[in-house]
What we know:
Elements (H helix, E strand, L loop, with lengths): L3 E5 L10 H11 L2 E9 L7 H31 L3 E9 L1 H12 L3 E5 L6 H6 L1 H9 L4 E4 L15 E6 L3 H4 L1 H12 L2 E8 L2 E4 L7 E4 L2 H23 L5 E7 L2 H11 L3 E6 L6 H6 L1 H9 L4 E4 L6
Parallel strand pairs: 1-2, 1-4, 2-3, 4-5, 6-7, 6-11, 7-10, 11-12
Antiparallel strand pairs: 5-12, 8-9
Helix pairs in contact: 3-5, 9-11
Amino acid sequence: MFDKILVPLDGSPVAQAILPYVMLVAKGFHSRVILFHVAESALDQEDPEQKTYADETMERIRPLAENYLAGVADEFRKQGIDVETRVVGGRATAKILEHAEQENVGLIALSTHGRSGLARWVMGSGVDRILRACEQPVLLVRPRDEGGGETAARLSKIIVPLDGSNTAEAALPLAEELARALGLELILIQVIGVETTVRFGSMAPDSWSVPSDVLQQLDVVASGYLTGLAKQLKNKGLTVQWEVFRGAAGSRIVEFAKETSDSLVAMTTHGRSGFRRWVMGSVADEVVRHTGEPVLVIRPHRPR
């Protein structure tokens, strides 16, 4: 499943915050790790003069980047992990997508902040492009302090937010494999919104509180749904629990992840009840920025 893991690095300690988690996953799946550095250039490659300058700059940068990646690779080899390094020039996001496709990697893993392009990759248009265009799951880690750097990765639980849709459930097979390979507990959760938004024609949308009797019915339905899924997973030998919450999806997921130590949140990019927003908009932004826990973003399979 994770035969190859692509790890974009920019040379900063903050970007390296992803590395302990990559080591953990690589050991569990016996993965080959590709440490990847993009020497970004805004120059026009079609212009001969600019291309010549870009090529000369790349030749100066390449030895420094290769030396940096070689040092990181040594730490992986000490852990018995198969690793290789790559240095390329160009636009960071485009090169990540291109390389992920060419190498048929099973996972892209990166820190949510870093020098040069890494901050844009995750919190700006770059990560949107990656999530929309690539078929691979993306593991995002937010460094726990301003200085970044590496600390030991500790994982004991995988939180899987669900909404009752097949699309949201697409996260389960990968979460199941992770739980089995790394010896983790699965926690299935569903968040029931206490407000609904209604739009009348061209008027501004209005929010209405969901009646308490309806919320109670939704609680019962969600509990039955999660109980059924948990039973299926337990029958496969996994340790599973489930929880139903009320509130706003993003803030409730963040709160629960903070309460649940050593956890990873695994979720799909699309689904019912706002799951599209979880990755492409404010909810995912909130989860990635504020949980302090790794987030695994999974794109449901699409026919090529």
